[in-house]
């Protein structure tokens, strides 16, 4: 503060000059910090979303089947090509923001890859763009991330732009049954919303700079001493936003010009909040799509997560949790079985008793689900719910053998909802239970498998409503 006092203690012209320069520099730094944060945050969230999408897509592709595709134009007629093409089209339909999805394999020439399955080869609307047949060569030496993806999932560092739009590409290895890389799956994701958001923030930043300059030129000679405190307020707001506190609002007392500047600053903060909410919505839509694709592979489990989410939501409301907590329970219930993406379909569909090794694999799916969500989930409260939804009230569940109050209460709610829907839904390994039989099983499990309080609330719902 003493430094500012010395700067503003000279003649009127010196005060005005210092005020104008200081205002412009601070506004420029503040705008630069916000723009850099927005660019980094938006791109990071998009890359995290793309990384999850490519990983889950790679898990759905059979590496051994990928090797069976003949690498020539006639390969498009093979059963292996058509089956993988159907899987890629299903992923694309479930995620409209995907522009292109394809698989590639290595060649004997360093830095050169070859296409295996490009579903757009049969799409008349895609003929104007580049489509490729099995065996068509592609110079990947300009794209180091694509070459790295034979070893681990990765994404491009920056957005790409061509005559067909703005996009970002991600890649992940496709494994065969022996765990060897048979090829890669590549996804070009539409990124116009991030590009447009960056442009909007850039324009808003320019407007803020112009407002600051105009304000400094007009008000500097008169109010230079009084501006120091509002400047600190604005700078503090910038630091808060740069650290991710997008709820922070700047309140400046003084002239109409200062209030207009604060309004412009808060408008920029609101725009950042909107972009973050948009990314949240994209993430949950993506995760729900992946769960639905997983359940659609098996007619017995189709719609299971949606029904569990409905039961869990009603239980949480019956237990008088807040609307935010009810929403959290619903989100977690929709994602509770995402870890089954890492479980072989043969195990999930098996109608005969599972071996001890297969049981162990099944019991790992809550941990796998937590690991899938951990790098990219926004609501961190979801992680312990997904991990613990198969724990038992008596401590005999999995994966951590937690007991009673040690188990997340929302995980216990989902456990009851999950068990009830599983009992009244058809399964390949047992007959469907009637509503009355399922209610009896809930009562039997109360106090051992389930939290008695939650069971009582579930029974209230079942007795009062028709499902």
How would you sum up this structure, described in words?
With about 475 residues, the protein is an alpha+beta fold. The chain has three domains: about 1-40 and about 195-275, no CATH class; about 65-190, PAS domain (Beta-Lactamase), CATH 3.30.450; about 300-465, Hypothetical protein af1432, CATH 1.10.3210.10. About 55% of the residues lie in helices and about 10% in strands. The protein has 17 helices and seven strands. Strands 1, 2, 3, 4, 5, 6 and 7 form a seven-stranded antiparallel sheet that branches. The longest helix is centred in the N-terminal third of the chain and has 49 residues, at about 10-60. Residues about 5-10 have low confidence and may be disordered.
Please summarize what this structure is:
The chain is α+β, with helices and mostly antiparallel strands.
Protein traits:
467 residues, 17 helices, disordered N terminus, 3 domains, single chain, Hypothetical protein af1432, Beta-Lactamase, seven-stranded antiparallel sheet, 7 strands, alpha+beta
What is the fold's blueprint, element by element?
Layout: H1 2-7, H2 12-60, H3 63-67, H4 79-94, E1 98-106, E2 112-117, E3 137-139, H5 144-148, E4 154-155, E5 160-162, E6 165-175, E7 181-190, H6 192-223, H7 228-242, H8 256-296, H9 304-318, H10 323-335, H11 345-348, H12 356-363, H13 365-373, H14 382-388, H15 409-424, H16 435-445, H17 452-464
Antiparallel strand pairs: 1-2, 1-7, 2-3, 4-6, 5-6, 6-7
């Amino acid at each position: 503060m003493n430094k500012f006092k010395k700067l503003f203690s000279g003649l009127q012209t010196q005060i005005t000059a210092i005020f104008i320069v200081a205002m412009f520099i601070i506004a420029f730094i503040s705008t630069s910090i916000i723009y850099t944060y927005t660019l980094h945050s938006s791109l990071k969230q998009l890359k995290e979303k793309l990384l999850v999408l490519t990983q889950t897509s790679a898990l759905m592709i059979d590496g051994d089947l990928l090797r069976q595709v003949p690498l020539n134009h006639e390969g498009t007629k093979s059963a292996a090509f058509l089956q993988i093409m159907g899987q890629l089209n299903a992923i694309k339909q479930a995620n409209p923001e995907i522009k292109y999805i394809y698989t590639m394999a290595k060649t004997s020439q360093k830095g050169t890859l070859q296409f295996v399955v490009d579903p757009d080869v049969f799409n008349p609307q895609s003929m104007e763009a580049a489509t490729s047949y099995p065996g068509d060569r592609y110079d990947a030496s300009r794209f180091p991330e694509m070459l790295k993806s034979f070893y681990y999932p990765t994404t491009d560092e920056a957005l790409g732009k061509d005559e067909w739009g703005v996009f970002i590409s991600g890649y992940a290895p496709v494994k065969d049954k022996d765990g060897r890389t048979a090829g890669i799956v590549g996804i070009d994701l539409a990124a116009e919303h991030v590009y447009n958001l960056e442009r909007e923030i850039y324009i808003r930043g320019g407007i803020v700079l112009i407002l600051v300059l105009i304000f400094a030129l007009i008000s500097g000679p008169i109010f230079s001493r009084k501006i120091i405190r509002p400047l600190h307020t604005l700078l503090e707001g910038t630091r808060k936003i740069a650290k991710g506190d997008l709820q922070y609002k700047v309140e400046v007392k003084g002239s109409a010009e200062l209030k207009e500047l604060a309004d412009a600053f808060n408008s920029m903060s609101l725009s950042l909040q909107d972009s973050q909410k948009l990314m949240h919505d994209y993430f949950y839509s993506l995760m729900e799509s992946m769960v639905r694709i997983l359940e659609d592979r098996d007619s017995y489990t189709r719609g299971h997560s949606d029904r569990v989410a409905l039961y869990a939501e009603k239980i949480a409301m019956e237990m008088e949790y807040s609307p935010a907590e009810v929403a959290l329970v619903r989100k977690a219930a929709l994602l509770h079985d995402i870890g089954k993406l890492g479980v072989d379909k043969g195990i999930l569909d098996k109608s005969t008793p599972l071996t001890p090794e297969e049981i162990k694999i099944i019991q790992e799916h809550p941990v796998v689900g937590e690991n899938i969500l951990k790098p990219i989930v926004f609501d961190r409260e979801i992680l312990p719910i997904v991990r613990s939804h198969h724990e038992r009230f008596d401590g005999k569940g999995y994966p951590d053998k937690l007991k009673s109050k040690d188990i997340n209460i929302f995980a216990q709610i989902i456990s009851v909802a999950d068990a009830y829907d599983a009992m009244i839904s058809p399964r390949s390994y047992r007959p469907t239970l009637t509503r009355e039989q399922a209610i009896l099983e809930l009562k039997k499990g109360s106090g051992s498998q389930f939290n008695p309080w939650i069971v009582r609330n579930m029974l209230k719902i079942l007795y009062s409503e028709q499902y």
